[in-house]
Design brief:
The protein is 56% helix and 9% strand. The chain is α/β, with parallel strands linked by helices. It binds adenosine-5'-diphosphate and magnesium ion.
Amino acid sequence: MDYKDLWHKVVENIIKYYGEAIYKSWFSKIGFLEFSDNIIILSAPTNFIRDWLLSNYGETLLKLWQQYDSNIKAVEIITKARDVAQLENIEGTSEDMLFSNRMGEGIDNPSSNLDLRFTFDNFVVGTPNELAYAAARAVAESKTVVSESNPLFLYGGVGLGKTHLMHAIAWYIRRNNPTRKVIYMSAEKFMYQFIKSLRNKDVMSFKEKFRSVDLLMIDDIQFICGKDSTQEEFFHTFNALIDNNRQMVISCDRSPSDLDNIEVRIKSRLGWGLVADVHSTTYELRLGILASKLEQMNIKIPQNVVEFLATKITSNVRELEGALNKVIAHSTLVGSEITLANTQDILRDLLRSNEKIITIEDIQRKVAERYNTKISDMSSPRRIRSIARPRQIAMYLAKILTPKSLADIGKKFGKKDHTTVMHAIKKVEELCESDIEFREEVNVLTRILQN
Ligand code: ADP
Ligand code: MG
């Protein structure tokens, strides 16, 4: 495929999508540079245009390319000042890293890839992330390597603050200990630069660059799984740094032991230091995060709207922030007040995708699985305890987790009438009162079903 030609097709689509005006203001200024490792590289004249395009049109741009080649996994825009020749020169690829002592740039330098908002001050700590936070903080504050946390391995689902914590470490060191040399880089960029250096027969300077740092942070390490030579190179870098008493911080979407397609020796070494997981948020943490964002923006919105968001947008912090921003943007644009009613309206699509619909069948299946009974026992008339108790629990869960009536629930459990269901619910409630272990059991099942 000729990607340069494809670019013209993509441009046609952009015009169709966004119109001439937007095309002229933004897209007409960028050009196709190259295609490499399934990454499209475009060039833009300034950092500002690059950042604007990526944050406003980045996703669409990627989708437009993927229409023509589904293997494309990223679109990158680099600024013309650093053209390809420079990009291939390792020293010039400062985009994803920061040499705190050499660049001497201000903290708000736009060319740095660190997000200004991602500081420790802006990070809200709660039970789900307190270990990860404390560990990150310790690495940032220490003047030397924290050997019991080397590497510090942060893992957890998307949008839960891993990248935020890594940037926070970099900001902190930049501010308080600027002679420490820090590199922060996504695993994807690591691979990309490694391949460039191979192509340029310049692997030595690639190696040197990484081996001369005090702290190396690699984000989203899962990306290099299955990529053998990059993995190998990463492992050498990793070993060299650890052996020389330098700090490593790594993030991943899963724990080291859950990584597939990675060599066993690498996998086991990743878990040698401190493995800290970032759990899904709790309601309290979500409230805290919303409060903190509102304070930062100096905006007040009704408390029932805040609680509504914290209750409904449970997937991750990124979506929660997105929802809040959407509500605020809407009210600013339309000039209307923020109320619960219009919030529900504005977020309708988002809420739908966040809503998990639990059916009685799901409940029966999960409960039967957990107690090792047959699904058919859920609707059988048998009263032996080992079958009747799980059935009662399932009826109770059906009542609290679905909108079904007692009569409807009864029907699904083998045409029992509503008094039987009522009796079951009462029984389960009583047991929850009197027996802590039983209550915990019911809680566990509830969580399993809600996730
Ligand atoms: P991850 O790297 O785990 O996918 P990010 O670090 O990119 O997630 O976080 C997604 C968004 O959520 C960012 O805007 C980040 O600032 C915000 N965020 C996540 N956790 C917190 C937190 N505890 N306090 C404040 N903001 C948070
Ligand atoms: Mg991240």
